Amino acid sequence: MLSKETIDIIKSTVPVLEIHGKTITTTFYQMLFDSHPELLNIFNHANQREGKQPQALANAVYAAAAHIDHLEDILPVVKQIGQKHRALNILPEHYPIVGENLLGAIKKVLGDAATPEILDAWAQAYGMIADAFISVEAEMYQEAENAPGGWRGFRPFVVERKIKESDVITSFYLKPQDGGAISSYLPGQYITVRVQPDNDNESYTHIRHYSLSAVPGEDYYRISVKREDAAPGKPAGLVSTYLHNSVNEGDVLEINAPAGSFTLDQEQNIPLVLISGGVGLTPMISMLETVLKEQPEREVTFIHAAINEGFHAMREHIEQLDTAHQPMKSYVCYEKPLDQSLCHKIGYIDLPWLQEVTSKESDFYFCGPVPFMRAVNQALQAWDIPAERIHYEFFGPAGSL
């Protein structure tokens, strides 16, 4: 337990973290990779360049400081981050390295304002927070390893099938190279892929999380990957282009066991609305197929938004499910359709249209690009949908809407 004096010191730094948090965490990552370049094998380099990871860490540090006297309040966040740490194979021995560099970054950024008392208080607080993460993640490692068909760390999987779903999305069907069983998962979870692309000028491995896009219980995992092409001010996605252009049927990928906290609440029986934008449909497909299989009487509405039909993955599959299941309704929104007869709405999803095609008493799940999710979230809040019935997932480091 932290003393009252230590807690008071940590609390006093909250305003400073609000101002300098991202500078501290950006400095932290620079120091971390300078002293331990091997950790570049774990972290997403693109998220570092774009500032997403430093911002996510800054938010987490700020939350920890603000709730230091009631850390149980942020336990859900600890568990969510713990899921990603387990998927990345973060180990207890990594935490002292992180702590040393985080304290070093605080001292470097704040200078003389980082008094010995403040640094000592943060060292104590970090130790307690690290112990909480290590404890939570130990349970997660054990659960993943002991599950039927489960394993620990990365396991080789063979690409059994590679199927083009749209102009930019391709599905990969993965089976374990050892021919053994694979663990099941909850609809909405992801697997973690580790590769060393031959188009990479560096020698590091690269790790990415990809949502599972099929109903649980099959003898394979399916991921549906969007190829991230180069755009003004943004390079092409190293891993996604490698998977699309260089990985073929019969090739082997290293996979970590399913993880993730964005999952469908199957205890609910109220109407369900699944809203996706672009490749955000991947966890939604898994949720949809699961509901149709396990809750066939449940009313479900599936809404997908894309630029146009060329970017729309699995359209025929959704139409077939819609035809075969009476309680299901599906709608398509295209920003710039090539054929207007192929969509139900032109432009963007908005509140008046949502009110036409869905019930206010529904449970809402959505996923897609951040601007898309922000618009959907704002529409649902304007409709006075209770927070407990609004669920969403960020691809990458957690952000805010």
From TrEMBL:
GO terms for molecular function: nitric oxide dioxygenase NAD(P)H activity. Its cofactor is FAD; heme b. Keywords: Detoxification, FAD, Flavoprotein, Heme, Iron, Metal-binding, NAD, NADP, Oxidoreductase, Oxygen transport, Transport. FAD binds at Y190, F394, F395, G396, P397. NADP(+) binds at G278, V279, G280, L281, T282, P283. The keyword Membrane does not apply. The record marks K84, E393 as: Influences the redox potential of the prosthetic heme and FAD groups. Heme b binds at H85. Its EC number is 1.14.12.17. The active site is at Y95 (charge relay system), E137 (charge relay system). Residues 149-401 are annotated as: Reductase. Residues 152-265 form the FAD-binding FR-type domain. Binds 1 FAD per subunit. Binds 1 heme b (iron(II)-protoporphyrin IX) group per subunit. Is involved in NO detoxification in an aerobic process, termed nitric oxide dioxygenase (NOD) reaction that utilizes O(2) and NAD(P)H to convert NO to nitrate, which protects the bacterium from various noxious nitrogen compounds. Therefore, plays a central role in the inducible response to nitrosative stress. Consists of two distinct domains; an N-terminal heme-containing oxygen-binding domain and a C-terminal reductase domain with binding sites for FAD and NAD(P)H. Belongs to the globin family. Two-domain flavohemoproteins subfamily. In the C-terminal section; belongs to the flavoprotein pyridine nucleotide cytochrome reductase family. This is Flavohemoprotein.
